[in-house]
Amino acid sequence: MNQSFDIAVVGATGTVGETIVQILEERNFPVADLHLLASSESAGHSVPFRGKNVRVREVDEFDFSKVQLVFFAAGPAVTLSFAAKARAGG
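The structure assignment produced for this chain is given below.
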């Protein structure tokens, strides 16, 4: 059975977030749906992934119950702020 995962990357427009997205692509990680999240200032930008541009959405509005894995690539304050919300989402 091949399993794929719905994944969120918080801080997707920063250097670390973009690197995570690149590694997911380079290693052919089994991604079913990729949710790129960032601050309101970065929301609306696009990041390339597997030949498509994925739109970055605002992390404040995201429902973490939609994903099985979350990568936090934002600073400590953002991570602390949203880690509990992500955990509560499942």
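Interim note for the steering committee: The chain has a mean pLDDT of 92. The radius of gyration is 12 Å.
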